[in-house]
Design brief:
It comes from Pleomorphomonas diazotrophica. The protein has twelve helices and eight strands. It is α+β, with helices and mostly antiparallel strands and 286 residues long. The longest helix has 24 residues.
Length: 286
């Protein structure tokens, strides 16, 4: 770690009661951050030793830029999946904190490995909060303070990509691509552009989940998922350009043309899935 701000944040956060592990997530973890990119820090705790939120607020208060908006929530204030955390500005940089319960994440991994996933309504996630997001967070993060190896242990359980998870994601999302296209087509007569756009988005988001699953890739969220999917070995050809063309058609009010492009993507995804199902044993999934 060579980032002075990050080093200071980790030193402060690791001293707060209940914080067992501090991890770096987001673009700074992936290595594609801009100088202005947020610092996304995951704070992991245990059921029996929750974060001392009051202590966290006291520890962070001297670091927060004067006059800036600062939010540090209670555990659970942002719901069961986002949980809680903070939005801060420190040294002119946006610093986002997210609480994560090690025990809850571990149980979610157990269920996912066994082929059970959930999708819940969540503001900020227009396709819903898919439980595998927690797996993606663990897989992609960089542990900065993990003395008991809590997150390191979770990471080990995610490789190789679980076969039952891939099958569950395909079964959950593949059918909806065509279903979304059919629903969008029925709205053309009413010229309900919002419904058509929403249905197309859902179809594309489902396609991204399926493509990433058959490639054994964890998806963090909807943002960037299609770009990720389009660059994978098992993907429809020229996926990015085809999606651009789809939305161009929509912008021109050629709704039928936009939907037809979604249908063609669905057909390509179906062909990829069929091939993948026949050759699964060649892939390093457990």
């Amino acid at each position: 770690m060579t980032d002075p701000l990050l080093e200071h944040l980790v030193a402060v956060l690791s001293g707060v009661g209940g914080i067992e592990t501090v991890v770096l997530g987001g673009s700074r973890s992936r290595g594609d951050a801009l100088p202005s990119s947020d610092y996304d820090l995951g704070l992991y705790f245990r059921d029996q030793r929750p974060i001392d939120v009051g202590g966290l607020r006291r520890a962070m208060e001297p670091l927060i830029d004067p006059g800036s908006e600062a939010i540090i929530t209670a555990i659970g204030e942002w719901g069961p999946w986002i949980v809680g955390g903070g939005w801060l500005t420190i040294g002119g940089q946006a610093v986002d904190l997210l609480y994560r319960n090690v025990d809850a994440v571990s149980a979610t991994i157990d269920r996912a490995v066994a082929g059970t996933i959930t999708v819940d309504y969540q503001p900020g996630h227009p396709h819903g909060f898919i439980s595998t997001i927690w797996l993606a967070e663990v897989h992609h993060c960089q542990p900065l303070h993990d003395p008991a190896g809590a997150v390191a242990g979770l990471k080990c359980r995610l490789q190789p990509y679980p076969r039952r998870l891939a099958l569950a994601l395909v079964d959950r999302f593949q059918w909806e691509i065509g279903f979304a296209a059919t629903g969008a087509a029925k709205a053309i007569a009413r010229d309900d552009r919002s419904y058509i756009a929403g249905s197309i988005f859902r179809g594309l988001a489902c396609a991204a989940q399926v493509i990433c699953a058959i490639n054994g890739r964890y998806v963090m969220n909807e943002k960037g998922a299609l770009a990720l999917a389009g660059g994978l070995p098992l993907a429809p050809p020229n996926l990015g350009a085809r999606i651009d063309a789809l939305w161009d058609r929509f912008a021109e009010r050629d709704h039928a043309g936009a939907i037809e492009r979604l249908v063609m993507i669905e057909r390509d995804v179906a062909g990829l899935v069929d091939d993948w199902r026949r050759t699964q044993d060649q892939f390093p999934f457990r």
